Amino acid sequence: MAQKINSMETKEKLVSQVIGSEKAKTVVLFGGSPVRRDEIIRLISEGVDLTVYGTLNEEEGMEKLKELDNKVDIVLIGGRYTPSQRKRISRWVTENLPKAKLSRPGFDYPYSNDEIRKDIVGKL
């Protein structure tokens, strides 16, 4: 029973968003795993004034994009998304949020933590 409690405690500590200052750039992360979402949010926001909203599927991510509208600066599409999902999300962002930049690890650059952080920080 103790392991389940520890597991639940771990889930409660996972980060799903980080809110920066009023001047912070905004990133919407299309993720797939709560654990990986937590890792990426911590990775890209460390030492940077950034607001990051982490989502776990395409539908949730699209809802967040529509909610935030032109406040989105970067859309990070995680590696678990299929080519057709990436195209669909990218096309929607390009057509509806022309100022937003896309970050697509495993597509535009190698999929690694270092490359993801480098790409996001470079686009700020």
TrEMBL record:
Q: Please, which domain of life does this record's source organism belong to? A: Bacteria
Name of the protein in question: Uncharacterized protein
